[in-house]
Amino acid sequence: MHAKITLLLSIVLIATLSCTDSQKNIHEKHQDHKLHWSYSGETSPEHWIEIEKNSDCGGKRQSPINIIHKNAIAVKIQEDLKIQYTPTTLISKVENNGHSIQFDFEAGDSITYKDETYYLKQIHFHEPSEHKINGVIYPIEMHLVHVNKAGKITVLGILGEEGEESQLFEFLESFLPIEEGAEKDIHQKIDLSSLVLEDKHYYSYGGSLTTPPCTENVNWIVFKEPIVLSVQEVLKLKNNMPINNYRNEQPLNDRAVTYHF
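Structure tokens predicted for Carbonic anhydrase:
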């Protein structure tokens, strides 16, 4: 009889512990899901500081910003920025990472900024634009992310306005639609020199990545003159990304913005 009672108690205890562990696992999974950043609801940009504890999202040098032209320090364009885009660079793949459409590149194109070489790693999009110029929000913003051998980052921000069709965007969008979480191998040439960035005026400032972990000490170059693409091209990108996948404007604090003309 004693043995039966002991066995029964053991079974109850195991069942209780199993149930507790199961509930704990469910809770932890729920917490993990909740803690993943997004662009809406409880995990929207306003909450990144709370949910991304080990990030720079609460720093004093964050991006994007509203660029006020009259407050920028104007300097003549010198040799700070050299863009070495060629017609032979290969796109490796395109992916929908749930936050944006991203095109990854094989080794090839690069830029030189302040005597350091940065290699083009990927291009992604935000709709509408993250950076503003004099408070103006553009329909779309393209980020060309470059990394040097030491891991430092320089991002070219190109604003887009609606108008005529863009052959470059037609090419990029020929690989869409793509479902969230999916990717496609491409391995095709693309000519980014068609952007003609060498002839454009630009703003520069020190900022951060605009998505978690919001890494600071990023060189930002935002071109003053927007590129032109059609309404249909804007909509096609928009339909493949989360609605309003932009981070809210960040304080400039004690940073200076330079205008290169």
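Confidence is low (pLDDT under 50) at residues 3-34.
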